[in-house]
Amino acid sequence: MTATDTRTPRTAARTRAAAAALAATAAGADLGVKTWANTTLADGPVHLGLLDLRLAFNPGVAFSLGDTLPAWMVIAFTGAITVTIGVYAWRTAPQSRASAAALATILGGAAANLADRAADGQVTDYLHTGWWPTFNLADVFIVCGGLAAAALTWRRTGHNRDQTVAT
């Protein structure tokens, strides 16, 4: 907690618990949908208009980067990043509930993709637009959490700059 933070240790613990629950819920939701996609979409895609449901597998990371690397290397690298995000989220959660939620969403998506990759060295994707690489719900969580974290940082930085100018 910062010197100006008035939150009690009890509030900080509740914020951490809520963030952990959100991360677990996001990971569980994605892994559940991936299980459904593996059984339902194996027979072929489902056309819904702008967004189709189509089963695909990605041995790499975003945009198939690293798809030629050994699976253990991709798992180790993404595992290290996921642990780093988890530690950072745990340490910063008491400072802001909104930031904790953004980081928890990123962590949940990263953990889901890591767990999926650990099983067979690839991530299950199922959301297909036709103009963008096929992706999954965990990817949506990671991107939306990242955008929220960036917006919160930008807002906080702008607020601090305004306070500095005013004094």
Quick recap:
65% of the residues lie in helices and 8% in strands. It has 167 residues and is mainly α.
- Give the fraction of residues assigned to helices: 55-70%
Strand content: 5-15%
> How many domains?
1
Class based on secondary structure composition and strand pairing = mainly alpha
Which residue ranges are poorly predicted, with pLDDT under 50 across at least 5 consecutive positions? Answer: none
Query: Termini, distance in Å?
Result: 24 Å
The arrangement of helices and strands along the chain is HEHHEH
If you average the pLDDT, what whole number results? Answer: 87
Given the structure, what is the number of helices? 4
Overall strand count:
2
Which shape, going by the Cα principal axes? Answer: globular
Q: Biggest sheet: strands side by side, in what order?
A: 1-2
Description:
The protein is mostly helical. The protein has one domain. Helices cover 65% and strands 8% of the residues. It is built from four helices and two strands. The protein has a two-stranded antiparallel ribbon. Helix 1 (9-40) runs parallel beside helix 3 (97-120), helix 2 (71-92) packs antiparallel against helix 3 (97-120) and helix 3 runs antiparallel to helix 4. The chain is globular and about 55 Å long. The mean pLDDT is 87.
